[in-house]
Amino acid sequence: MNSKWEWTLATKISASRILLMIPIAFLLFGEGEDNRLWVVGIILIGVATDFLDGYLARRMHQVSDLGKVIDPLADKIAVGTLALFLVILGDLPLWFLLAVVARDGLIVAGGIYIRREKKIITQSNMLGKVTVTVIALLLVTATIKIPSLEVMKIVLLWASVVFMLLSLGVYAKRLIIGKKVSA
Hints:
The protein is mostly helical. Helix content is 77%, strand content 0%.
């Protein structure tokens, strides 16, 4: 296991999720009949990289402190950015974006506090990964804009809220106890 702040293959894959927001923006705000389907494909690539980076880091024994920071930060930036795009386009409510940003802001602030006070770099946990997956499903459903999936979109919206609250509780517990909880 590596504890340095170095760029490994896994951290580069994690960071690539942030860069995926560039073509997503061009496609969502551009004019093209199939643009939203292309966006869904890019989202699915982003989801795949979220699983691939952790797998490679463990498999190649390249778990690093930088990776522990970049992976969840990339998730937060990608999810928040895509949610912002979908709010601007009228496909998601503003309150959902605010909930995502508030939760992620609290988690980042708590992680910084634990790092400073306890000298621990916290890792993502399984509930956090599940939460991001449910949110990704919501983002895909909101992106494709198929009227017959509107009920599914509403279910995923509220499921996302429930998972965000549950995962925020786990992170709050981590902050209070100050123990490292691994993925």
